[in-house]
Design brief:
The protein is an alpha/beta fold. The protein has a single domain, classed as Ribonuclease Z/Hydroxyacylglutathione hydrolase-like (Metallo-beta-lactamase, Chain A), CATH 3.60.15.10. 27% of the residues lie in helices and 29% in strands. The chain has eight helices and 19 strands. Strands 1-2-3-4-5-6-10 form a seven-stranded mixed sheet. The longest helix is centred in the N-terminal third of the chain and has 20 residues.
Length: 283
């Protein structure tokens, strides 16, 4: 979620990048340094329904929300947080089903606890494979927006053409680049739930040079696809709260306006609002 400096022209900004990495690493850990990280007090749980539990990281400054999505045979934990508190201690109290951890994208505040799980899934897409040696994933500063390098072993590669079968419950997976090039969303067709990570969430969605790795054209295409395929679905994002179905179309329309401004408008930064959805774009 945090911006990083960019290098323009022929200026050597490598020292600024190194300084940013050090500061980012410190900020990553400050919430844990100054407070109690006991999972019993770090997280709060909220039942969306008996088989879908939101795990709120309410003491973390970004207010992450992770989702335990259960079937009759297995469960998916969608996103795991920055790794400041052991989320597996929470999931083990919520279900006896085998839990597979899956990140919506590679930012540090979503992959931080993946290594705690024996089962780790990842979408089988080039944007993720390029960070792997075989099944071993290694984050970089640019992929995770953090100086802290993380590694884990992928035990299940997800084919986007096939649903994820949890036993009596299936989830479809979509590649939704924009916030990052490796972002994915999950859809539960029976319940009308759409889990979007950071691509669509109540926080202002930021695109352009202000947040490295984002792509406004990709975001427009992804939002159009989601709004077209799942127009009646409730949206469950990766931070702060849940959203009504209208947020999909609102996001798409705001992104279209942002893309038009980026191509023809003046200035270096502009904000666009549709309903409750806010887009901040920069050149």
């Amino acid at each position: 979620m945090d911006p990083a400096p960019t290098t323009e022209g022929n200026l050597d900004n490598s020292h600024r990048t190194r300084d940013w990495e050090k500061m980012n690493c410190l900020l990553d850990h400050i919430p844990g340094i100054i407070g109690n990280r006991d999972p019993k007090t770090w997280y709060k749980t909220e039942a969306i329904d008996p088989q879908t539990i939101a795990i709120r990281e309410y003491r973390y400054y970004q207010h992450n929300i992770h989702y335990l999505i259960m079937g009759t045979e297995r469960a998916i934990l969608l996103d795991t947080g920055p790794g400041l508190s052991d989320i597996s201690a929470v999931t083990s109290q919520l279900t006896r089903l085998p839990v597979t951890a899956l990140a919506t994208h590679g930012h540090y505040d979503h992959i931080g606890n993946l290594h705690l799980f024996e089962r780790i899934a990842a979408a089988d897409i080039p944007a993720i494979r390029e960070h792997c040696e075989g099944d071993e994933y290694h984050s970089t500063f640019h992929s995770s927006v953090s100086a802290r390098r993380r590694a884990f072993t992928v035990t299940e590669w997800l084919d986007l053409s096939k649903p994820i079968d949890l036993g009596g419950r299936q989830l479809t997976i979509r590649h939704t680049p924009g916030h990052t090039n490796d972002s994915i969303s999950l859809h539960d067709p029976d319940r009308g739930y759409l889990f979007t990570g950071d691509f669509i969430c109540p926080l202002p969605n930021v695109f352009g040079k202000i947040l490295m790795g984002t792509s406004l054209p990709d975001a427009v295409a992804s939002a159009r696809m989601l709004a077209t395929e799942f127009p009646e679905s409730r949206v469950f994002g990766g931070h702060t709260g849940f959203l009504p179905p209208r947020s999909l179309q609102d996001t798409h329309e705001a992104l279209e306006e942002a893309a038009e401004w980026a191509e023809h408008g003046s200035g270096i930064m502009c904000s666009f609002q549709k309903g409750d959805m806010r887009i901040i774009a920069s050149k």
